[in-house]
C-alpha cells in the first residue's frame, strides 16, 4: 500500500518531469525554428523596466543636510572645482574592467579505523541457566552466552585544482542612485561570431570615489557584483546534454 508521503513524492516527480518535458519541447521548437539561422540578438531595453528588475536596498548612513557657506566657490557635495566628467547621474555610462585571475588548490585525506568487541555471560540465572538448552534448539554455554564483534575501516582522498582567467571590458549604465551617493550599475554586452553568441552581464554597486578620471572602474571595486559570461549557439548547444538525459539525471535516484 502506497502511503500519502510516497504519493506526494510521486506527484512532485511527475509534475517536475512534466515541466521539464514542456521546457524541453519549447526549447526544441525554438531550435527547429532557428535551424540554419543565426542566434537572435536581444533588443536594447531599459533595465529598470525589466520584469525581473528590483531596486537595490542597502543600509544607508544618516542623511546630512547641506550647509551653504556665504562667498564660497565650492558647492556642497562637489568633488572637483571643475565639472566632473565621471558617471554621476542615472543614465550615465561608465566602463568596467574585468580581470579575474583565480587559482585554488585543495587536498583532503581522511582515514578512520574502528574495532569493537562485546562479550557477555550468564552463569547464574536463579538456577535455570542449565535449563536453557531445553528452550533453545541447541545446547549453550552460559559462560559465553553473547559475543559480538564489529570492525570498520574507511579511507577517503580528495583533490581539487582550479584555475580561471577572465579579461573583459564592458560598458555599464547607472540605473539607480542610493541615498548615500553610491550608484547601482547594470551592463550587458552581446557579440555574435559565426553562429555563436557570447553574452556578458554585470550588475553591482559602485562608489563614485572608485571611478577613475577616465571614467573606468575595476570589478574588484564593485560591491554585490554579479558577473555572468556565457553563450548560445550551435557549439554551446552541442556541449549541453539532451533534455531527456537531464530529466533522467534528475528523476533517477541511482
What this model shows, in words?
- This protein is of the alpha+beta class and 254 residues long.
- Helix content is 19%, strand content 38%.
- The longest helix is centred in the N-terminal third of the chain and has 30 residues, at 4-33.
- The radius of gyration is 34 Å and the shape is elongated.
- The two termini are 23 Å apart.
The tally of structural domains comes to 2
What is the number of beta strands?
6
In whole angstroms, the N-to-C terminal distance is 23 Å
Main sheet: which strands, in order across? 5-1-2-3-4-6
Radius of gyration: 34 Å
Based on Cα principal axes, name the global outline.
Answer: elongated
Describe the structure concisely.
The protein has 254 residues and is of the alpha+beta class.
Write the layout of secondary structure elements.
Layout: H1 4-33, E1 93-120, H2 132-135, E2 146-177, E3 183-193, E4 196-206, E5 216-218, E6 222-233, H3 234-239, H4 243-251
Parallel strand pairs: 1-5
Antiparallel strand pairs: 1-2, 2-3, 3-4, 4-6
List key phrases describing it.
6 strands; alpha+beta; 6-stranded mixed beta sheet; 254 residues
